[in-house]
Design brief:
Chain lengths: 158, 659
């Protein structure tokens, strides 16, 4: 529910502006370009919002950015060029998926590292367990034979 | 007078809490059973007094007593009664009071139903529970007093946030808090076990129902929040990877891991230390969630500084309990004896796999949520971590988990036979392949992920049912006999199968809506019609209406399918005068598990209106799956073997052996 509270805060701040995400008049005639624009919009942050992409946001800034993305696309930019342009203008903050750089190494690296460390840890644990565990495993043929002779010797014959 | 009484009741609860925080521990040290037994009565009385305080606050809201600051800021005399009540927790102070109300409720439940617990363990558990309670009573009394008065009472309140004026506020936060706070019991049990330095399978048996109950509430709470966001926010998303959502997802992931590791501990006496650690972590994540939401660090690192008292206080609570818990763990855990060896391929092994992937998934969410905050605090650099990041990192961790899921319940304890289990899952696998192929063909080969996702969902669902089918001898014995066996099955077996099926149902919904949803953003003039996914919507005109504390403009649409009118949809915009804000109320039309979603935009100069129309196939399955999961938990909880208070009279002071 706090998400709503935050959004309301921003809507309240920006109540004078247009009140919807993607507007009918923004949509490009070329459906291929439009779907590229939509996909790009989902990767881009509305910088004045609380963790919203410009595709979802109702803020005027988001609308400006959506129009900008479409303008660049119609001028023939590739998706990457559009992203690069926005990063050069607003910094990495505008990307909802931060690029892998030295200061995001932990962000990208920690989860896989933890998974691998966990797997290795478990493997070591299994290795260490094996000697004790094998003690309860089936006996070898040799042991089986020795056991049967022992039992045969000691038990009274029926 | 009423607010003062409420305030006073809260102070009394604090006093009782302090007694309960100390007396039982002293009693356990000196072997004084009367001191130890005191805890049960104080726990119940704490609940009574916090309950009184809460009722007093509800009274202030219901009677619109605007001399109370929080009522003035969050209520309005014209609001419907239900919103007057729900606005009690629609703000910081009141929601913290709800938090301690639920905390004291759980304490009282342990106090009154934990009769078969060994008295020393029970004394420690209730003492730890009271440490937490006292910390939060102090927090409320010193920094967030909901009963504070204004020197001059205004005539009218400033109204509740319009977006919160929804039935969702009545359901979502209480359920979520029941989940969050319910995990405090697992935490208290873990700390008590560490203090005593002993733990056995019976401990897991006592903790499991509490964890299960908390998990059930959290599951439903998250799902309800997601549905609320879906229909209220006007663009039809169901999960946004918002930090606040992540704050609730993290305890859910870790709590799910805890549920599974506690099974291993109960049945096999293994994974003890890990289970204790998880119990500490789950509640720590609940606390971190509370901290993230309550302190305001999420909005920006800077708002934190605007209200330093609250943020610092919660941070101190956080460090005390998480830090203290982990230090105690590091100190005492090595003294706990490990037991129960098992081969990697076994039921235990499958559950360890589950734990590894769930905790890694939890870590991913944790890192993704907190990394931007940490980076900005340390270097001043701002980055954003949003949906694209989580989709990329979370899904690869969850898919292996889902694939292995049907294997777990079919695997034998100690040493499993993976080939044998694979053979028994043959039917499930076959159906999955057929469904996959059918989806692929129907799709025309355009998408690969959707058929895979749907196939996986069917594999999980039928895999979960395979366990049941085998146990009742379906198709081997006459149907009647199978039916009787099905009724006789332990409810926890049904619970597992249902909870796992629930995941599959949710997966179906997610795949369905993310693959086949269609969208139309368009401006329509009166009498003009638009069509989407076989539905035709004709715009009939705008209607002006007024509600109790708002005015609304609704657009009336007639929905036709194949030329036949089937419904009217009225998306609207409400403007609330008190706060001068507007909300968008989407109109939803449910067809089977799918929905048509219509959201109203601006009224343009030429008399047309902007609308967003979505067709969301299978979308309801997302939340229905959560309901199925929670129902599975409830069924498992009703299993008398798990229910607290059934097994033994309270005379035994020794821990009972596992069966």
């Amino acid at each position: 529910m706090w998400r709503h509270a935050f959004i309301v805060l921003f809507v309240a701040l920006l109540a004078s502006g247009p009140s919807q995400a993607v507007q009918p008049d923004e949509i490009l005639k070329d459906s291929v370009l439009e779907s590229r624009a939509r996909n790009l919009s989902r990767e881009l942050r509305c910088m004045v919002c609380q963790n919203q992409s410009i595709d979802d946001s109702e803020a005027p800034l988001a609308r400006d950015l959506r129009l900008l993305v479409r303008e660049r696309l119609t001028q023939g930019d590739t998706d990457q060029q559009v992203l690069d342009f926005l990063v050069s203008r607003y910094g990495n903050f505008v990307l909802l998926r931060p690029p892998l750089e030295w200061h995001t190494i932990l962000l990208w690296g920690l989860p896989p590292a933890a998974l691998i460390a966990g797997l290795i840890g478990l493997m070591i644990k299994v290795r260490r367990q094996r000697p004790t565990a094998s003690g309860t495993e089936a006996l070898s043929q040799n042991e089986e034979r020795r056991l049967s002779t022992l039992v045969d010797d000691r038990l009274p014959k029926p | 007078m009423i607010p003062e009484l409420g305030h006073y009741a809260l102070v009394l609860a604090l006093a009782l809490g302090m007694i309960q925080a100390i007396a039982p521990v002293v009693g356990a040290r000196t072997n004084d059973s009367s001191l130890m037994q005191l805890a049960a009565s104080t726990a119940i009385m704490q609940f009574v007094f916090v309950g009184l305080a809460f009722l007093a606050l509800v009274g202030c809201y219901v009677t619109s007593d605007f001399s109370v600051a929080t009522v003035y800021e969050n209520s309005h005399s014209m609001m419907p009664l239900i919103y007057k009540i729900t606005s009690v927790w629609g703000n910081h102070e009141g929601s913290m009071l709800l938090w301690v109300l639920i905390l004291s409720l759980f304490g009282a439940l342990v106090g009154s139903f934990g009769k078969n617990l060994p008295s020393v363990l029970k004394a420690h558990v209730l003492a730890v529970q009271s440490w937490i309670a006292c910390a939060f009573y102090l927090f409320i009394l010193f920094t967030s007093n909901p009963f504070a008065r204004l020197s001059q009472a205004p005539f009218e309140g400033r109204d509740l946030n319009p977006i919160l004026q929804d039935i969702g506020l009545a359901v979502h936060p209480p359920l979520l808090y029941l989940g969050y706070v319910g995990f405090s019991i697992a935490f208290s049990f873990a700390i008590a076990a560490l203090i005593e330095g002993r733990i056995d399978a019976a401990w897991a048996r006592w903790v499991r129902p509490w964890t299960l109950a908390a998990w059930m509430f959290l599951t439903i709470g998250i799902a309800m929040g997601s549905y609320w966001a879906y229909y209220e926010l006007g663009w039809g998303g169901f999960w946004f990877w918002d930090p606040v959502e992540n704050a609730s997802l993290m305890p859910w992931l870790a709590g799910t891991a805890l549920l599974h590791s506690a099974v291993v501990m109960e049945k096999r006496n293994a994974l003890k230390i890990w289970t204790i650690l998880l119990a500490i972590l789950v509640f720590s994540l609940s606390l971190i969630g509370t901290f993230l939401v309550r302190s305001g660090v999420l909005t920006s690192v800077h708002t934190f500084a605007n209200d330093p008292a609250r943020g610092v206080f919660i941070l101190a609570i956080l460090m005390l309990f998480i830090g203290g818990g982990l230090i105690l763990f590091a100190w005492r855990a090595p003294t706990l004896k490990q037991g129960g060896l098992f081969a990697p391929i076994s039921r235990e092994g499958a559950l360890v796999f589950n734990n590894l992937f769930l905790t890694t998934a939890c870590l991913t969410v944790f890192v993704g949520t907190l990394y931007p905050l940490a980076l900005e605090a340390l270097t001043g650099e701002k980055i954003s971590v949003g949906e694209p990041f989580f989709n990329l990192t979370f899904a690869p961790l969850f898919v292996p988990l889902l694939i292995v899921m049907p294997f777990g319940p079919l695997m034998a304890w100690k040493r499993g036979d993976i080939l044998g289990v694979a053979q028994r899952l043959f039917a499930a696998f076959g159906v999955a392949i057929v469904v996959l192929a059918l989806t692929f063909i129907v799709e025309g080969g355009t998408s690969v992920l959707a058929p895979l996702g749907i196939g996986l969902a069917f594999f999980i669902m039928i895999g979960a049912m395979t366990d049941i089918a085998e146990r009742i001898g379906l198709f081997r014995v006459p149907l009647l006999a199978a039916w009787q066996r099905a009724i006789g099955l332990p409810r926890s077996v049904w619970g597992t199968a249902l909870a796992h099926s629930g995941i599959a149902v949710t997966l179906l919904g997610i795949v369905g809506v993310s693959t086949w949803a269609s969208e139309l953003i368009v401006a329509v003039k009166p009498k003009q019609a638009v069509s989407l996914s076989g539905y035709e919507l004709a715009f009939e005109g705008l209607v002006q209406r007024s509600g109790p504390n708002y005015r609304e403009a609704a657009a009336r649409f007639t929905v036709r399918e194949g030329g036949v009118p089937i419904a009217t949809m009225e998306p609207s915009k409400r403007s609330f005068t008190a706060r001068a804000t507007t909300t968008t109320e989407a109109a939803l039309l449910t067809r089977g598990f799918s929905q048509l979603y219509l959201s109203l935009g601006d009224v343009n100069g030429d008399g047309s209106i902007s609308v967003r129309l979505y067709h969301k196939p299978l979308v309801l399955l997302i939340w229905l799956g959560a309901v199925v999961m929670a129902f599975g938990a409830a069924l498992s909880l009703s299993d008398r073997r798990l229910r607290i208070g059934i097994p033994k009279p309270a005379t035994k002071s020794m821990m009972q052996p596992a069966e």
